[in-house]
């Protein structure tokens, strides 16, 4: 595929690339050349109409400015208080305001104009995530016929939840303007196709693509992965660091952004259930929950933080001993190498989202284990990762007894079974490694029906 790669994502990394997706996109941009466009983290009333250059690297990074009001309405508002809860089946938390939607569309239109000015005919555009759903439709309205791909990192919403969106009929039109709609799982693809099937404007062509008005979109799953070689290497040399006097014998680890989708209250309560039901009173399992702060300007995130402090206080108050604090709730971000070291040190990785696009922590935990003496992954069946990771102990996080039972089983699991389950999970993690994911996505995008050749394709499929 000739032409530059134009990547659009909400955040553009500053400094050296780190983290799987960032490195993978960085590598793809290095290989092909191109531009990485994202929002400037500093809101400003100045310079709203320009993309400014960041850094001096073989490809360009360009940041677009948001005013404080736009950041509030487009980012905290429509993206994180409307789309995020809808996609994660938390419609009770949705906050609809007309200015949210207006600024979401305005920011996307401004971005589309800025991108269109700079596009060459062979360039390929790859848009990431729910902040930019209408971008392709807007680029098309400006006459752009380049290949444009979209990848949704979060779950595709249920059709009934979609109806809660203001002007729900826009959603299908936004997505149909892309050449390739990439989703995390086969379940997501099924929900997207259900949406198109229910829409009288959509028609299924014989090759499985969807024709919607004058557009043809391919819908497919691309389960995202991690840089497993790098994590395995880090885990071999990483040091979990000191624990203080109470060095846990049985360590259960959780590491999540502090988000209401991650099922953290359920995780804490299930751990409390485990402590309550202990037969061996000398057993002293410790749950270490690292929760990196996230979106503190949205009320639902402040609420969940307060809830977690209350639950962890109650559980510790009930079960702590002089030399043992069963639940350690660390509400801050931990250095990457140390986090990987803690994962390797842990007997159990506990991942309990109520809804999650993929969940990379589950994959990182597997990659961080010593294959000859691995820990056990306890994984919510509502994480995208559960669709393929059948070697994990799959749980329903709403069922506290089931989760407590799975942790108990994991802590007592014989070495043979641990090795077998870990090998099964590691094979899945390696198959979906991030470099393969990027290549697969871009190759599929290159093979999609180009927007210009529409009438010929229609004739062939009729
Ligand atoms: C979205 C989707 C999808 C966590 N705490 C610390 C830390 N982390 C790192 C983890 C992991 C990343 O953050 C979190 O990734 P997840 O996939 O678990 O979750 P989201 O942030 O919600 O990501 C998700 C993903 O996009 C990719 O498509 O899988 O479903 O929601 O890498 O290790 N990293 C450091 N310190 C921490 O304290 N350094």
Outline the secondary-structure elements.
Layout: E1 5-8, H1 20-32, E2 34-39, E3 51-54, E4 60-64, H2 68-87, H3 98-117, E5 124-128, H4 135-141, E6 148-151, H5 159-162, H6 169-176, E7 180-183, H7 186-197, E8 202-204, E9 210-212, E10 215-221, H8 228-237, E11 250-257, H9 264-276, E12 285-292, H10 299-319, E13 327-330, H11 336-345, E14 348-351, H12 360-368, E15 376-380, E16 393-395, H13 400-412, H14 415-431, H15 434-447, H16 454-461
Parallel strand pairs: 1-2, 1-5, 2-4, 5-6, 6-7, 7-10, 11-12, 11-14, 12-13, 14-15, 15-16
Antiparallel strand pairs: 3-4, 8-9, 9-10
Helix pairs in contact: 1-15, 2-3, 3-4, 8-11, 8-12, 9-10, 9-13, 12-14
Bound molecules: GDP-alpha-D-glucose (GDG).
GDP-alpha-D-glucose (GDG) is lined by residues 19, 153-154, 224, 255, 257, 290, 292, 333-334, 336, 339, 356-361, 364.
Structure description:
The protein is α/β, with parallel strands linked by helices. It has two domains: 5-225 and 436-461, Rossmann fold, CATH 3.40.50.2000; 228-432, 3-Layer(aba) Sandwich (Rossmann fold), CATH 3.40.50.2000. Helix content is 43%, strand content 17%. The protein contains 16 helices and 16 strands. It has helices at 20-32, 68-87, 98-117, 135-141, 159-162, 169-176, 186-197, 228-237, 264-276, 299-319, 336-345, 360-368, 400-412, 415-431, 434-447, 454-461, and strands spanning 5-8, 34-39, 51-54, 60-64, 124-128, 148-151, 180-183, 202-204, 210-212, 215-221, 250-257, 285-292, 327-330, 348-351, 376-380, 393-395. It has a ten-stranded mixed sheet with strand order 3-4-2-1-5-6-7-10-9-8, with helices on both faces. Strands 13-12-11-14-15-16 form a six-stranded parallel sheet, sandwiched between helices. Strand 5 (124-128), helix 4 (135-141) and strand 6 form a beta-alpha-beta unit. Helix 2 crosses helix 3 and helix 9 runs parallel beside helix 10. The radius of gyration is 23 Å and the shape is globular. The two termini are 28 Å apart. The protein binds GDP-alpha-D-glucose (GDG). GDP-alpha-D-glucose binds at residues 19, 153-154, 224, 255, 257, 290, 292, 333-334, 336, 339, 356-361, 364.
């Amino acid at each position: 595929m000739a032409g530059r790669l134009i990547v659009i994502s909400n955040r553009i990394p500053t400094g050296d690339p780190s983290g799987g997706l960032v490195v993978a996109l960085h590598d793809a941009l290095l290989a092909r050349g191109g531009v990485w466009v994202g929002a400037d983290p500093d809101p400003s009333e100045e310079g709203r109409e320009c993309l400014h250059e960041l850094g001096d690297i073989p490809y360009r990074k360009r940041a677009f400015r948001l005013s404080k009001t736009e950041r509030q309405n487009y980012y905290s508002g429509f993206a994180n208080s409307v789309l995020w809860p809808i996609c994660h089946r938390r419609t009770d938390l949705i906050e609809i305001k007309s200015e949210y939607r207006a600024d979401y569309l305005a920011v996307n239109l401004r971005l589309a104009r800025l991108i269109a000015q700079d596009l060459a005919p062979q360039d390929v555009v790859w848009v990431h995530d729910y902040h930019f759903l209408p971008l392709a439709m807007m680029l098309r309205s400006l006459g752009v016929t380049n290949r444009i791909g979209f990848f949704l990192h979060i779950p595709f919403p249920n059709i009934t939840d979609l109806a809660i969106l203001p002007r729900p009929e826009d959603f299908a039109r936004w997505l149909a303007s892309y050449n390739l709609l990439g989703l995390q799982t086969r379940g997501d693809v099924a929900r997207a196709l259900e949406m198109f099937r229910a829409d009288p404007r959509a028609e299924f062509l014989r090759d499985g693509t969807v024709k919607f008005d004058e557009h043809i979109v391919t819908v497919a799953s691309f389960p995202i992965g991690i840089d497993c070689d790098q994590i395995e290497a880090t885990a071999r040399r990483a040091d979990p660091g000191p624990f203080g006097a109470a060095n846990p014998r049985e360590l259960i680890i959780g590491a999540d952004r502090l988000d209401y989708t991650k099922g953290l209250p359920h995780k804490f309560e299930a751990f409390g259930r485990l402590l309550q039901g202990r037969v061996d009173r000398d057993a002293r399992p410790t749950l270490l929950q690292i929760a990196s702060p996230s979106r503190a300007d949205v009320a639902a995130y402040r609420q969940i933080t307060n809830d977690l402090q209350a639950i962890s206080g109650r559980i510790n108050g009930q079960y702590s001993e002089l030399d043992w604090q069963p639940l350690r709730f660390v509400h801050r971000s931990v250095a990457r190498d140390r986090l990987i070291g803690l994962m390797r040190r842990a007997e159990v990785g506990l991942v309990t989202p109520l809804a999650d696009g993929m969940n990379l922590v589950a994959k990182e935990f597997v990659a961080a284990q010593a294959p000859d003496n691995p820990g056990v992954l306890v994984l919510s069946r509502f994480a995208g990762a559960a669709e393929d990771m059948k070697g994990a102990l799959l749980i329903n996080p709403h069922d506290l007894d089931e989760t407590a039972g799975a942790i108990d089983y994991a802590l007592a699991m014989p070495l043979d079974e641990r090795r077998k389950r870990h090998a099964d999970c590691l094979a899945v993690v390696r198959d979906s490694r991030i470099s393969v994911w990027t290549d697969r996505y871009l190759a599929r995008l290159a093979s999609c029906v180009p927007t210009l050749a529409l009438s010929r394709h229609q004739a062939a499929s009729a």
